[in-house]
Amino acid sequence: MNNSIKYILLFLILSILMSASAIAQTYGQIFTKQEAENRFGPILTSIEFSKQNIQLFLTQTNNYIMFRINNNSAIILDNHRMPLYPTGIRMNSSDQYVMYSTSVLEELLSLGNDNIVYIEQRSNVLSITNGEYTMEVGGLCPPICP
Known about the structure:
- The structure is a single chain.
- This protein has a single domain (about 25-140), classed as DNA Polymerase III, Chain A, domain 2.
- It has helices spanning about 1-25, 35-40, 50-60, 100-110, and strands at about 30, 45-50, 65-70, 75, 85, 95-100, 115-120, 125-130, 135, 140.
- The strands form two sheets. Strands 1-9-8-7-2 form a five-stranded antiparallel β-sheet. Strands 5-4-3-6-10 form a five-stranded antiparallel β-sheet.
- With about 150 residues, it is an alpha+beta fold.
- Mean pLDDT is about 90; it is low at about 15-20.
């Protein structure tokens, strides 16, 4: 009986740890602009934002921020899929957004150290560029949403 309790406790602890790591998933990877071009192809659409505006959006979300380009306009959502930009838009719950960890975006802004941030659509990916650095490898929401 004593061994059974130990196994149950071990199972519960492992389950909790695995759940916590799944929740704390990091989305986004930083590349040089040239690496991004080589890996993900040319930029098809580019939308410019001030670094200051992106930093403001980061203060209005927790852990994740989501992006989408639709009809040559950027849409930015917080971690609850609520619009940060433009405000008051109507969205379809099935619309897919690219989700990035706020910590990775903050690192990009620090590394790039430029006053302009570009949200870019490539053939199969959405990227964020600041200075000589580009962030790629985001998660898709849905299916995986915080």
